[in-house]
Amino acid sequence: MKVISGVGSVLVLLSVAAASGCTGLFHSNAQPEQVYYLRAPEVAGAAGAIAPLVPPASVRVAHPLASPGLDNAHIMLVQSDQRMNFFAGSRWPSPAPDVIEALTVETLRASAAWSSVEDAASPFPSDYLLHSAVRRFEADYTGGGAAPVVYVVIDCTIGRGEGREVIANFSASASAPAAANRQSEVVAAFEEATRTALGSLSQQAAQAAREDAQRHAQKSDKPGPSTSGPGR
Length: 232
Prior knowledge:
The chain is α/β, with parallel strands linked by helices. The protein has helices spanning 96-111, 183-221; strands at residues 12-16, 33-37, 58-61, 65-66, 74-79, 83-91, 116-118, 128-140, 149-160, 166-177.
C-alpha cells in the first residue's frame, strides 16, 4: 500500500483520533487519522461567473453515482499493473459521491446562473435535474514520476425536472499534477482538479439550460396552423 509522508495541508485539516477524549485506562500509539476537506470556489469571480439564465431557472443536483472502488471516503490512488489502493491514515470527510454532490451544489450556486440550486434532499421542485457519475477521482502513479497526477472525471446528464426530458449529456474532466509526493500536495492537486472539473460542469449545465430555453421560445413563436378555409 502506498503511504505518503507529510500531512501539513494547505487546506482545512482536521485531526481525528478514535480515543482523543479518553484518558487513564486506555492508551493507543496509533497515529491519528487525518480528514481532508476540499473547498469549492468561494464567490463567483470574473472567471467563474455566468450570465443569469433568462427566463430564470432552478436546478436540483441528484446524488452522484460512482465507479467501483470510489464509493467510499478513502483518498484513492492508482498504481501500476492496474492496482487500486488508498492512502493510509487519511480520508475525505464523507464518501466521494457526497463530497462531489456538496461541491457541485456550491459551485452552481456561486456561478450566479441559476435562480436556485437544490441538493438531492431538498423538498422543493426544480426546473432542471442534474444527474452525474464520478468516473475518476484518484491520484494516478502510473505516469512514472515520483509524484502522482490527480484525475477527476464526472459524466453528467441534465434534463427537465417535469417529464424527465433529457436535454444534454456531457463530461466534465480535469487533471492536476501534485507538486511533490506528500499528502498535502496530493490533496492540493485534488482540490485544483476538482475545482476545474466542476467549473466546466457549471458552464456546460448552464449552456444546456440556455439552449433548451431558446428552443422552447422558438417553438412558442412559431405561428399555429390556419383554421380558416380558402378565400373566395
